[in-house]
Structures are given as structure tokens and as C-alpha cells.
Write a structure and sequence with these properties.
Blueprint (H helix, E strand, L loop, with lengths): L2 H17 L10 E7 L10 E2 L1 E7 L2 E9 L13 E2 L9 E2 L5 E7 L18 E7 L5 E7 L9 E6 L4 E6 L9 E6 L6 E2 L9 E5 L2 E6 L6 E5 L11 E3 L9 E8 L2 E6 L8 E8 L2 E8 L9 E8 L5 E7 L6 E7 L7 E5 L5 E8 L20 H10 L21 H10 L15 H21 L1
Antiparallel strand pairs: 1-3, 1-26, 2-5, 3-4, 6-7, 7-8, 8-9, 10-11, 11-12, 12-13, 14-15, 15-16, 16-17, 18-19, 19-20, 20-21, 22-23, 23-24, 24-25
Helix pairs in contact: 1-4
GO molecular function, one term: hydrolase activity, hydrolyzing O-glycosyl compounds
Pfam families: Dockerin_1, PEP-CTERM
GO biological process, one term: polysaccharide catabolic process
């Protein structure tokens, strides 16, 4: 092989190791799981403390825990959940891979029957967690009729700013369904008229999808085209009205492979259903964790792809307390589950999201006024915005993209003064095994160069 061919091959290998989104042998990835309850008392229908726990993809004990606020502070509101409303508490990863999103209530513990409260007095709240800093933003609280008398179940976002929420509402039911808002808003807009009872929203391949148990759009449905933000959209069923597994969370392995979590019994398809698309038509393949006589019903669902191309699915089981976080590798319909964590007594796992070790944080950008130079004008923007929270972009002085305008942003402005407006975002540091492979590749390449001289 020629020197140039060797060089090209080694570069391909090296970039493949670094850039791959697959779960490589020995690589580290994280599972973020919503947990309700602090274990001190039995779960009830009252407002309950909510946490987001990080696990290694192999499970075990939590690596870290993020506590959602239980009291208002600064611009942030409380975010609690019902301890027994198992249809809420879902978690999603934003389309740009930088934020986790969930919904809840601006309710103090233990506000009774929190899921039936009026949203004018107990606002429904969106929570956003910055994966780079763990900063929590709960400045989005709806004081209108959004989800009044019902629950805000899930939140999807393309970028941490544009938000699509799902849930139920009462008087009328159109206060629920699928609604759109932006970060920091106090009102939201219903973008579909039916169904009005929606479980989970997700964005996959640039398209918005929802799940529902409503007969007309049973299972998973596509909403409009792309990421619609205006009223009058139509939900079109993907899995069809024959879907009977009481669908909740779902995950797209790719554009043509869909997995759907269901909490139905064995006869009605409970477990994890697999659907594939060919020629624009989706077809049911089989249900994982369902023997026909017994099933492991699940509600939360996410996944990844291993080095062999298999879907590695992660799910939360349906027990109301002390439920399980499980994984299953889809090698066939007979694949079995492995328990990788169990919620402690008086707590329960709800939704979950998979985040690979290649998450890229936002680039620092101190060009607040967008004139392509970092100067005194940008300092004035920062000065006027100092102390603001929940900011959707850099226009008020948020240089590091954490949603807050503070001293950290001033430090970035100082370092960038007179220079280019932004620095290139740097991905996560490769794991040691990855670094070793890169080192081997470079050493081999160096040897090839010496022999070629």
C-alpha cells in the first residue's frame, strides 16, 4: 500500500473512532432517568420532589443526581410531579443534543391532587437542563389554561428554545393535547385539534411525532411536516389504529425503524413493539418482552445502536413504586431484558434519555449584538442583561449558552475582546480506550512514513 493510501486509511480509522455515535466496546455513555420521590414517604397524588439521575449505560448506582427546584428562586419556578400519575415525568434530549427537557408543576410539596389543579394557580412548568453545566432553567411557566385540570407529560425541543408539550386538560379538553411555546413563555398554543389526550412528543430526523391512546391516532403519529409551530396541524398515524399496546414513549433507531413502549397486558401487545418502514408504509414486526402469555410492560423508552448494528433499548417498567430500569438488545423477538437498576422504596423511575459521550457543548460567543466583532458595544449588552435568567440566546449577554447572564459571560467577553466572535465548540474528551486507538494509529502512520523515506 502506498504512503498516501496508508495515510488516508489511518485518518479514516481515527475519525471513525472519534466521531462514531455507536456504543463501542469499553466506551462510556450516560442514561438520564427521571425519579419521583425522595424515599422518605410513600408516593401519593400530591406534588412530589423530582430528580434526574445519571447512570452509566451498564447501570449500577447513579453517577450523579440533579434535583429539580421545589421552591421558586430568582426567575426559576418549582418543578414537581405527581407521585402516582404514571403518565407524566417523561424526559427527552433536545435535537441539538445540548439539553434535557421535562414537564411538571409549579407546586410546593405536598400540594394535594396536583394533576387536577387549575393551571392559573398551579402553573404547568417546563424544565430544561443544560448538559454542559447542569444548569436548570424552569422559567417557562404557563399561567393560561395550558393543561389546566390535567398533566403536562412530556416536552420535546429542537434547540432548548422551541418547545412542544403534551398532556391532558379539562374544561374543555382542548386545553391539553399538543401545544407549542418558546422558552420563558407564559402561554402556549394548541397546534392540533385532535387528539386532546397526548402522551409523549419526540423529534426524530427533523420531524415531530407524538404518541396517544386515542382510537383515531392510536400509537405513534407524525404531526404536520417538520417542526410545525402554528395551529391547524394534523396528526397522521404511523403505526395505525390496529395498535393496541397502550403506547407511551418511543424511539427511532433510524428513519425506518421504530420502537414503541406499551403498558398493555400480554394479549394486547404490552412490551416494546418493533415497526419498520418500507416504501412509505410502516409494518409491525414483533413485540419484545412479550411471550404471548406474559409480558414486561414498560412506559419510558430510549435507545442506542451497538457496534454490531443492533438496537440497545433502555426502558422503565410500570410498577408504581420501586420499579426497574432495564435494557434489552434487539437481536430477535426472543431477546430478554436485563435489570440494570431498581428504584428505591417510595420512589419510581419515569422517563429516560440516552446521551452518548460525544455530546458537544455550545460554543462560547461574546458577539452579543451580532456585528462580527467583540468590542465595547457587546460589553454594554452584557451590562444591561446582567442578572437575567432563562435567556434563549446570546442577544442579552449570555456568552456560554447556559441561559444566564452573569460574571462567567463577562470573563468570556474579556478573553474574546478584539478577536473573532466565537470559538469552535469542542466535543467531549475521548475515553482512554479511544485515545489509545488514536495513539496506535498515529504511531503506525509514523512508522510507515519512516519506512517510506
Amino acid at each position: 500500500m502506498s504512503k498516501s493510501a496508508w495515510k488516508q486509511k489511518l485518518v479514516q480509522l481515527t475519525l471513525g473512532v472519534v466521531a462514531s455515535g455507536l456504543i463501542a466496546d469499553g466506551a462510556v455513555a450516560d442514561l438520564y432517568v427521571v425519579r419521583v420521590g425522595d424515599g422518605a414517604a410513600a408516593l401519593s397524588s400530591g406534588a412530589t420532589a423530582t430528580f434526574v439521575e445519571k447512570f452509566a449505560d451498564a447501570g449500577g448506582s447513579p453517577l450523579s443526581t440533579i434535583a429539580m427546584p421545589t421552591t421558586a428562586s430568582g426567575g426559576n419556578f418549582s418543578l414537581t410531579n405527581s407521585g402516582t400519575a404514571t403518565s407524566e415525568g417523561f424526559l427527552s434530549l433536545s435535537g441539538n443534543g445540548q439539553y434535557l427537557l421535562l414537564g411538571g408543576y409549579n407546586a410546593t410539596i405536598p400540594t394535594a391532587s396536583v394533576a387536577t389543579t387549575d393551571s392559573a394557580t398551579v402553573n404547568r412548568v417546563v424544565g430544561r437542563i443544560n448538559l454542559s453545566t447542569n444548569a436548570i432553567d424552569t422559567t417557562t411557566a404557563f399561567s393560561d389554561s395550558s393543561f389546566t385540570g390535567g398533566n403536562l407529560r412530556s416536552v420535546a425541543s429542537s434547540d432548548g428554545v422551541n418547545l412542544w408539550m403534551t398532556g391532558t386538560g379539562s374544561t374543555p379538553s382542548s386545553n391539553g393535547g399538543l401545544r407549542y411555546a418558546t422558552l420563558g413563555a407564559t402561554t402556549s398554543t394548541a397546534i392540533i385539534s385532535t387528539p386532546t389526550n397526548v402522551r409523549v412528543a419526540k423529534i426524530a430526523n427533523g420531524q415531530l411525532y407524538i404518541s396517544s391512546a386515542a382510537q383515531s391516532v392510536m400509537g405513534v403519529s407524525k404531526v404536520g411536516e417538520g417542526l410545525p409551530t402554528e395551529a391547524g396541524q394534523t396528526a397522521t398515524s404511523v403505526t395505525g389504529p390496529a395498535e393496541t399496546n397502550s403506547s407511551y414513549d418511543f424511539w427511532f433507531k433510524d428513519a425506518d425503524t421504530l420502537y414503541v413502549a406499551g403498558d398493555a397486558n400480554a394479549a394486547n401487545g404490552g412490551g416494546i413493539q418493533k415497526w419498520t418502514q418500507s416504501g412509505g408504509t410502516w409494518s409491525f414486526q414483533y413485540t419484545l418482552l412479550n411471550s404471548g402469555a406474559a409480558t414486561t410492560s414498560v412506559r419510558g423508552l430510549t435507545g442506542a445502536v451497538d457496534v454490531n448494528g443492533n438496537a440497545v433499548l433502555y426502558a422503565t417498567t410500570t410498577a408504581t413504586s420501586a420499579n426497574q430500569l432495564i435494557s434489552v438488545i434487539d437481536t430477535s423477538a426472543a431477546a430478554t431484558a436485563t435489570t440494570i437498576a431498581t428504584a428505591s422504596a417510595n420512589t419510581a423511575f419515569r422517563g429516560l434519555a440516552f446521551v452518548s459521550s460525544g455530546v458537544t457543548p455550545p460554543a462560547n460567543n461574546a458577539d452579543f449584538n451580532g456585528d462580527n466583532v467583540v468590542d465595547g458595544k457587546d460589553f454594554l449588552v452584557w451590562q444591561r442583561g446582567f442578572g437575567l435568567t432563562g435567556q434563549p440566546n446570546k442577544s442579552t449577554g449570555d456568552a456560554n449558552g447556559d441561559g444566564n447572564v452573569n460574571a462567567a459571560d463577562l470573563t468570556i467577553w474579556k478573553s474574546k475582546f478584539g478577536g473573532p466572535p466565537a470559538e469552535v465548540a469542542v466535543g467531549a474528551v475521548p475515553e482512554p480506550a479511544t485515545l489509545s486507538m488514536i495513539g496506535v494509529a498515529l504511531a503506525v502512520f509514523a512508522g510507515v512514513r519512516r519506512r517510506a523515506k
